[in-house]
């Protein structure tokens, strides 16, 4: 893949993520259509794992909401726009990981930093609010993402090892 295509797709996802978090319910139809298109363009051998990663992400957010760490604005659980965001993220991440040559252990600090950062930006954009102390929320999220990111990356990482 060309470097230009890589950066265009990555920056395109970042713009899509920002629109999703900023627009939320106002752009739900676009989010649903575009996230299912991302799934449709995912190679068939990887679609099931995209669905699994998406489901695990929704469960992770649900657990954090149930534990009272945060709540999404205007919702008592995980709202549809966030579910669409999980589907799009899962498709994008597993695609991106196929091109990056990260060793698995780099995914631990990457998850611990990037996961909470995404939620922090989402909070600043008004998509969620903290219900527990910030230190408690960010430390639990860092720990959760340090496990979550390597876990959802397993199929791609294991596929690389096959001769």
Question: How is the topology of this model organized?
Answer:
Elements: H1 3-23, H2 28-40, H3 44-66, E1 70-72, H4 80-99, H5 107-124, E2 128-130, H6 134-161
Antiparallel strand pairs: 1-2
Report what the structure shows.
- 75% of the residues lie in helices and 4% in strands.
- By secondary structure, it is mainly alpha-helical.
- The protein has one domain (3-161).
- Strands 1-2 form a two-stranded antiparallel ribbon.
What percent of the residues sit in helical stretches (DSSP H or I)? over 70%
Residues in β-strands, percent: under 5%
Distance between the termini: 21 Å
Overall 3D form: globular
Please write the string of helix (H) and strand (E) elements. HHHEHHEH
Could you name the ranges where pLDDT drops below 50 across 5 or more consecutive residues?
none
Rg estimate, integer Å: 16 Å
Major sheet characteristics: 2 strands, antiparallel
Strand order within the widest beta sheet: 1-2
How many extended strands?
A: 2
Mean pLDDT: 92
Helix/strand-derived category reads mainly alpha
Question: Tally the helices: what do you get?
Answer: 6
Question: How many domain modules?
Answer: 1
Task: Give a brief rundown of this model.
The chain has about 160 residues and is mainly alpha-helical. Helices cover about 75% and strands about 5% of the residues. The chain is built from six helices and two strands.
